[in-house]
Amino acid sequence: MGKLYTALEEWIREEVLVKGTLSGKKTSSELVKVVVKPVKIKAGIRFQLEYHEKDKVRHKNLDQAEALEEIAGLMAEKFKQLDLKTTKADVKIFANSSEDCRVVVKSLKAQVEERVVDLSHNRQKHYILEDGVPVDYLVQLGVQTEAGKVVKSRYDKFRQINRFLEYVEDVVKVLPKKDRPLRIVDFGCGKAYLTFAMYDFFTRKLGMEVSIIGLDLKADVVKFCNETAVALGYEGLRFEVGDIRNHEEGGEVDLVVTLHACDTATDEAIVKSIGWKVAALLSVPCCQHELHDRLENDTLEPVLKYGILRERMTGIVTDAYRALVMEAFGYEVQVLEFIDMTHTPKNLLLRATRRRAEVPGEAPQVEMSKWQAVDAFEKTFGLGETYLRRRCESV
């Protein structure tokens, strides 16, 4: 019996294991990760293995001996490590073969509430990132302690990152599968919490190769982010000083992200996305000033005459207008809640995914029936010639 099997036998028991995740692909197989957890079925306690492939998830329910053999084989051939949450400790097992492994055990502190094994199929949803499970960039950026505990003052940021990753996970299915790294541009990345989160999600969670660039106007922020990326060994991530309008990318771009890009900076990101024919755009708009003084509608005058209501209406009209424009250029757009209003008033996210193929080398095509809807919307609210419309004419 090898050292790896012995280590697995100690921690993968029904009264001990809460959840385990196999990650760090050794091969280029379709299998991205495997999750293991104990479940109670009619036949008794079994260990359920979830095999996550790029386009599907399949399950097996195995008894302990079968599960140990299966996991040992997966670690010997396909995955580098197994992260375990147990009732006694957080455990990491690193294996090169069935005979060679390294085990790192972090015991739960006495003041931490004892973990309980949940054997039901319908468990409460887990975050993509979990409190108590350390992630290197979260530790580096001060969101987690080295033990993986979320710093109390950074819990809102932790929650925001999780929410954002849920939206990223939702667009994975529309991203292209090509023989090249996935290309992502993050406009106005700031301190880049979400940029680092995307890199970790695609590489560690999904086993994909990526090339991500974060763009920001502040040189000191860009310097910090580049130094952090180097410290973490994130080779496919870089940051540059620059603005959205003047930035150009050689080659295809698959996903564009903007978080709180102020005023027309969001419009610039939309224009770039349309011009690049990206598969998806995730944008949290901010500070919609351009249309504030233009809004004009006799029916809505009882609303527009009050400053605070005009401001809120401006945000709604601006984002609805942006959604209409992207729909005219062949995107399916959803307006979603990003995080609760109690955390920030800027809580809407525009998620746009391309719904039709474009001919390579040709300019993006506009659907005239949908562009007529844009015209009608502009007239309804007295918008005149908007910045977004002018920029779209140059795409």
TrEMBL record:
Keywords: Methyltransferase, Transferase. SUPFAM superfamilies: S-adenosyl-L-methionine-dependent methyltransferases (SSF53335). Transmembrane segments: none annotated. Coiled coil: none annotated. One of its GO terms (molecular function) is methyltransferase activity. It holds the Pfam family Methyltransf_32. Residues 156-293 form the Methyltransferase domain. GO terms for cellular component: cytoplasm. One of its GO terms (biological process) is methylation. This is Methyltransferase domain-containing protein.
